[in-house]
Amino acid sequence: MAPFVTSIKSPLGPSKSAFLQRGFSLQSPNLPRFASKARSFGVFARAATEKSVHDFTVKDIDGKDVALSKFKGKALLIVNVASKCGLTSSNYSELTHIYEKYKTQGLEILAFPCNQFGGQEPGSNPEIKQFACTRYKAEFPIFDKVDVNGPSTAPVYQFLKSSAGGFLGDLIKWNFEKFLVDKNGKVVERYQPTTSPFQIEKDIQKLLAA
To answer: N or C: which end of the chain has fewer CB within 10 A?
Structure first.
């Protein structure tokens, strides 16, 4: 089926134009909703899987191994980020605000750079780190650049997607898709790329209080 938009000039940046050209609306009528609020909180945590996020080891932005088991007992917001996306400024700004507000209450934000959507994370790891930490004062953990789709998908993202399949399947659709993970390392919610961090603050509060 051909997308309903063939050419868009967006003041919000080329990534949003490309996103719309794929047939999705930033106003959300045509964007797949991964997490229906009509369902109970935690619906996506599949009892059949024995794994949790805590079973994985990843590399941080400096190339050091990080066992995600270090985050046991914390609520996690996991995001695939990009530096040159039309969603970059709002997401990084809001993620920084959310982290500052809730980090002492047990929230960690895990950012995974990814260059698979419009080539919008082309920089080296040092460049990505400087961008996030200098421009947006990001203090949350940033990890090595990964693939989130395809044959080279990072194992942690294979787990996230299998735990919370989206309306159109397991594929990550764009930059800044978000997974909310409970203190036991299980996925409880998945959010579309255009869902802002501020929009999921109540879910974060609920998870921290659990």
So the answer is: N
Q: Which two tokens stand for residue 195?
A: 């869902």
Per-block mean pLDDT, blocks of 10 residues, the chain (210 long): 37 45 41 37 41 96 98 98 98 98 98 98 97 96 97 94 71 96 96 97 96
DSSP sequence for 182-210: -TTS-EEEEE-TTS-GGGGHHHHHHHHH-
The residue type of 108 is E
| Residues annotated as catalytic (active site), given as ranges | 85
- For residue 40, give the DSSP letter: P
- Topology of domain 32-209 in CATH is Glutaredoxin (3.40.30)
Q: Where are the domains of the chain?
A: 32-209
Q: Which of 85, 139, 82 is nearest to 112 (CA)?
A: 82
> Which tokens sit at 47?
């009892």
